[in-house]
Amino acid sequence: xxxxxxxxxxxxxxxxxxxxxxxxxxxxxxxxxxxxxxxxxxxxxxxxxxxxxxxxxxxxxxxxxxxxxxxxxxxxxxxxxxxxxxxxxxxxxxxxxxxxxxxxxxxxxxxxxxxxxxxxxxxxxxxxxxxxxxxxxxxxxxxxxxxxxxxxxxxxxxxxxxxxxxxxxxxxxxxxxxxxxxxxxxxxxxxxxxxxxxxxxxxxxxxxxxxxxxxxxxxxxxxxxxxxxxxxxxxxxxxxxxxxxxxxxxxxxxxxxxxxxxxxxxxxxxxxxxxxxxxxx
Amino acid sequence: xxxxxxxxxxxxxxxxxxxxxxxxxxxxxxxxxxxxxxxxxxxxxxxxxxxxxxxxxxxxxxxxxxxxxxxxxxxxxxxxxxxxxxxxxxxxxxxxxxxxxxxxxxxxxxxxxxxxxxxxxxxxxxxxxxxxxxxxxxxxxxxxxxxxxxxxxxxxxxxxxxxxxxxxxxxxxxxxxxxxxxxxxxxxxxxxxxxxxxxxxxxxxxxxxxxxxxxxxxxxxxxxxxxxxxxxxxxxxxxxxxxxxxxxxxxxxxxxxxxxxxxxxxxxxxxxxxxxxxxxxxxxxxxxxxxxxxxxxxxxxxxxxxxxxxxxxxxxx
Lengths: 281, 317
Fold this sequence. Notes:
The structure holds two protein chains of two kinds. Chain A is built from 13 helices and two strands, in the order αααααααααααββαα. Chain A has helices at 3-35, 60-66, 69-102, 110-122, 126-139, 145-170, 173-181, 186-197, 199-215, 218-223, 230-235, 245-265, 267-274; strands spanning 238-239, 242-243. A two-stranded antiparallel sheet of chain A has the order 1-2. In chain A, helix 1 packs across helix 12, helix 4 crosses helix 6 and helix 6 (145-170) crosses helix 13. Chain A starts with a helix and ends in a 7-residue tail after the last helix. Chain B has helices at residues 6-34, 88-95, 97-128, 135-143, 150-160, 182-207, 211-220, 224-251, 256-261, 273-282, 287-307, 309-315; strands spanning 37-52, 70-84. Chain B is mainly alpha-helical. Chain B contains twelve helices and two strands; from the N terminus they run H-E-E-H-H-H-H-H-H-H-H-H-H-H. In chain B, helix 10 packs antiparallel against helix 11. The model of chain B has no long low-confidence stretch (mean pLDDT 86). Chain B has two domains: 43-83, no CATH class; 89-315, MetI-like fold (Orthogonal Bundle), CATH 1.10.3720.10.
């Protein structure tokens, strides 16, 4: 294969890849572009809706939507629930990840415990939702942020367990042993040696868990009423005046922007995280 | 393995185990119990209380003779009754046309979307594994959908598939209003969001294949097709199986897209099992039906997972 043919092939592949990438990127782009247009231009815009070329962009929809307290409440609730559940999942899940990486359990063996944690992500939430509704009402934590945090923590905990377990496995055990020779306790070796060395993986796991807690709609729609989060706020964009595409676009963007940024930050760990540690990536 | 004081070992593991046991296994057993019962939610009047009527300053209103005006308020209490009905709810669910339709739709939905995601993901991974310009940048753009809020994605596609004057209106396809097309529109959303995930995993796997292995194969045969079928695909096979497992389990949960994109419609054409269960439980207050319906689904998913169980166990050595 001579060099010219090689670069021609590279160009062809690049063009095909670029075309597909653009198709996949289009929905996000369209929504973004829609949020910058005046309502009249929602459907009259030509081309693919590039600001300044196809239309004059305006922040009118954004300022209008963000001026309502609902937007702030939804943003605050979503962030609060996601941050606290992520923190809780780490506090409870991290020691478990360490235990599964470092010690041998006989009954049941380590790998079965790991798989059992993972099996929660396979469980259809529909099967657990009615009991949650009944129990939460009985306990008086229905429609509270506290109740929501408990649910979210439960379902995101597998991520920290499987992602960080793998990182702990990759750490040389000698470091912790050296610390223990120097007089550190077991817990000290875990907190002062293993955890600091695994910060990147813990951070990536946190981003993934935050996103899952932030994105959840199923449990929110069952267990929340007045304490609404972003998805419920988006649904409010459809009212008696019909679907207001321009406001929906803004609300969609508000919900989606943060996960998209986190996605780019956690890029290296997405494969390991979403395959639940099975593929190292 | 460190030799460890047994108590500390358990101290590390148990909080997470107890948390998860209490909040997934316990609700599941409760749900199993509910599926054998007829749950009735009744508002029972437990008593009548007289309270003073207040004026707008918060002072009690008085009659002309000086006595305080009162109103009677019924004290209500929500009581939940569970009547054991055996397999009655299961029989109803199995014979219910609506459940059968939902199960059929969910099944077809899972099969088609996962199949397309795997094939398209493999193709894209193959493409991005070649020497191309701007790979890192395009890869970043490609994976954006993975983390996007599914419920919001449904609305996003609602604007894109808008039939009157949306950006795809020129195709003249009744994306959401026709009961034959609507299921495909929902699949399209799933494919859009999860093909990038399959692509990313396969790409990572492809890049993990040592170059000299491929080079050795090229000495044997010049045909790229043969190299793929006899070297690359067999190497990728465990990962493909794993991705299928994860995607099937995940897409069987189908709820968010439907809740925002089609609301199960038109008619019941895009009603998934989760969506039906949700409606039965919280719109029609039939907890027994919902629990039985979701348990049947759980059993099907579990059987599917069990088929892969030995392989899954190997992955976590």
